[in-house]
Amino acid sequence: MRNFDYHTPTRLVFGKDAINKLPEVMSQIGKKVLLTYGGGSIKKLGLYDKVKELLKDFEIVELSGIQPNPKYDPSVLEGVRLCKENGIEVILAVGGGSVLDCSKAIAAGAKYAGDPWDLISYKVKAQAALPIVDIITLAATGSEYDCGGVISRTETNDKIGYMDSHLYPVCSFLDPTYTFTVSKKQTAAGCADAMNHIMEQYFAEDTTLLNDGFCEAGLKSLMVNAKACLANPEDYRARAEMMFACTLGCNGIYSLGNSPSGWPLHAMEHALSAYYDITHGEGLAIITPRWMKYVLSDKTVDRFVKYGVNVFGIDNTLDKYEIANEAIEMTYAFFEEVGIPMHLKDVGIGEERIDEMAHHIAVNEGLDRAYIPLLEEDIAKILRASL
Amino acid sequence: MRNFDYHTPTRLVFGKDAINKLPEVMSQIGKKVLLTYGGGSIKKLGLYDKVKELLKDFEIVELSGIQPNPKYDPSVLEGVRLCKENGIEVILAVGGGSVLDCSKAIAAGAKYAGDPWDLISYKVKAQAALPIVDIITLAATGSEYDCGGVISRTETNDKIGYMDSHLYPVCSFLDPTYTFTVSKKQTAAGCADAMNHIMEQYFAEDTTLLNDGFCEAGLKSLMVNAKACLANPEDYRARAEMMFACTLGCNGIYSLGNSPSGWPLHAMEHALSAYYDITHGEGLAIITPRWMKYVLSDKTVDRFVKYGVNVFGIDNTLDKYEIANEAIEMTYAFFEEVGIPMHLKDVGIGEERIDEMAHHIAVNEGLDRAYIPLLEEDIAKILRASL
Q1: Average per-residue pLDDT in chain A?
Q2: Mean of the per-residue pLDDT values of chain B
Q3: Domain B182-385 maps to which CATH number in 3.40.109.10, 1.20.1090.10, 3.40.50.2300, 3.40.630.30?
Q4: Where in chain B is the domain with CATH 3.40.50.1970?
Q5: What is the rounded CA–CA span in Å between residue A146 and residue A200?
Q6: Inter-chain touch A213–B216, beta carbons under 8 Å
Q7: SS3 of A378, please?
Q8: Which residue spans of chain A are classified as CATH 1.20.1090.10?
Q9: Would the ipTM clear 0.90, i.e. be above it?
Q10: CA of A24 to nearest chain B CA: how many angstroms apart?
Q11: Could you say which of A44, A191, B111, B120 would form a disulfide bridge with A226 (CB–CB 3.0 to 4.6 Å)?
């Protein structure tokens, strides 16, 4: 078991009507608010009006139009400008993980005199950040309980996971009823994203019994509840369980003391969605079973057996490779069952830029140090198998 | 799934040599330190000297002699007096959960003008508390990651679980090597205490798939690793896993969104150790299987089946009551295997005060509102069955 230093200062206010505590929380932080959001979904939900009503005594500046796979230019740059010009004291992010990720980069940039890309690219370590509060409307990224975000820079095809301990939200509001209207496509993609967060921590060396059990519980809960959400989008209990399992995804609690795995699936998918702007969870779901097949070996087979037996209930008296292969097939089948297109071609990615992406990943992501080291040719093979 | 509001601001620094970060942490809080500890064990470990060396630039006042089942008089009262007289800025608790529990009561009392019992007895709500840092040398209570403590007042046979959100430690240092010298008796009792923290959360209505899986993982990890610790007290990995599973015990992470259970086992045991000053974990282990047998019914049998199948691997095709009873027997057998005396008579408790204790519990603990409501006569029966 490895040493760790763990600190999650975020307060979680969870459940129906949770946001009624918003004014109490915000008033302890500041009066000048940057309200960040994406498109019209929070207006359709009535959430925009509700927030404005709850915060009628606050000064609110707005930044809207934040996209999935949020962009450095214009969103981060525009947000930083608004914060500096208006003396913003707190950022309130309302929406999915992309809005919050973008807001984290803004929070750091607002307290930095230079080009915010210095921070995101780790050239400079942030010394401070604006406090962040969020209201999450999508069960997926877990950004509401971690200190990271993913930012894309279109002109360089960069999609960088940016983490800094200043970026834990002060408070995250999680009301499962706001996810009732999430589409089947986004529900499935969110589930795949959260499952992958757990798998990235589960498929590692030197894990603990406790962490393995936590991960297996998370995976099972996500699969059962995602199917229930698809069958009945207003199943409160299923939406709530799924939301909370997602919230824990990147917080570390699933793997404290484990060896680091290198997060190979996210590393590869970040290139896919940087080059093609696809839905992150779908990209992950597509490459996951192909990665699994590729890395299955005498070194990893016991891990896949544990996964197959404990997550899918496969008979543990079967041959090891039989269990492992069945577990991989069941992973594929689950993603297919919840409606995820399971080939890169289905999401508009062809052969053309596979080698270019593999090269980009190999150069930028350090997967030669992952749980199962991957070189450029390995990455290209996995991506090709996913076509 | 119930609404919840969850906030754990404690930083955990975990692993061998973790306490080398102590000066860095303490210097951010204050220079005037109340160092609290129990008997001589931290001196035997060399930990006392190490702490004094690390904090040679701090002003240290000491409070020693804090006992298991820590006492309001003299320990809490003496600690509050020392804090007030010396302008203490931070409390550093070094030892097991009792030292930390006592220090939490001191931390609240030091910021209160009246009798500290007003706070502990919930007559008055604390408005502030001194910051607390701890170095834990026993895997058991989980006090290092929660905001509660248990304080005994001998003259009234009261043993009160006192919780307040001001009492989360700022930072907890957890070095598993400090538990290498913990006796077999205390290792087993610590395991039983932590298992019971999880069971109190697991045996409840309206739990989630995620929480059930977390609890089952915690119970399995504790049982496997406690046995490994007893077989080889210097098994770092086993000591580390056990320590961390204990740390999460009362933090809430095992049951966020569950219905409250009323913690019946702790409620009953607190009377046992208030009246007889027995080892808390032993008292819990003794009454647990008797409580289980007593509450097994058509209402609870499915819960016990889940427990038996998922924690002990009992064949799920057997009859429900057969599984449940086997699970209860296996619980008893585990405690016996790790060396816990499994009858109240073995720890010096006879028939004499059973009715008096049952009455005290019924009046003070609200078990009529527990997962399975218990009235005075039920409590007396469970205690008698434990003799």
Answers
A1: 96
A2: 96
A3: 1.20.1090.10
A4: 11-178
A5: 15
A6: yes
A7: helix
A8: 184-385
A9: yes
A10: 13
A11: A191
Predicted confidence band at A372 (pLDDT cuts at 50, 70, 90)? very high
Q: Which residues of A53-85 are buried (b: 16+ CB within 10 A; e: fewer)?
A: ebbeebebbebbebebbbbbeebbbbbbebbee
Model confidence pLDDT, tens digit, residues A223-266:
999 999 999 999 999 999 999 999 999 999 999 999 999 999 99
- pLDDT band of residue B158 (cuts 50, 70, 90) is confident
pLDDT band at B257 (very low <50, low <70, confident <90, very high): very high
Residues of chain B with CATH 1.20.1090.10: 182-385
Backbone angles phi, psi at B136, to 5 degrees: -95, 135
Contact list, A7 vs chain B (CB under 8 Å): 9-12
Mutate to test the interface with A, among B2, B6, B210 (most CBs of A within 10 A): B210
Residue type at B297? S
Q: Does domain B11-178 have CATH number 3.40.50.300?
A: no
pLDDT confidence of B9, banded at 50, 70, 90?
very high
pTM for the full model?
0.96
* SS3 label, residue B98: helix
Identify the residue whose tokens are 């390995």. Answer: A378
The chain B residue lying nearest A310, using CA atoms, is B310
Inter-chain contact B209–A216, Cβ cutoff 8 Å? no
* CATH class for the region spanning A184-385: mainly alpha
Q: What is the mean pLDDT of residues B179-205?
A: 97
- Tell me the pLDDT tens digit for each residue of A73-114: 999 999 999 999 999 999 999 999 999 999 999 999 999 999
Q: Are A152 and A159 in contact (CB under 8 A)?
A: yes
Contact indicator for B213, A221 with CB cutoff of 8 Å: yes
Which among B208, B214, B240 has the least Cβ separation from residue A241? Answer: B208
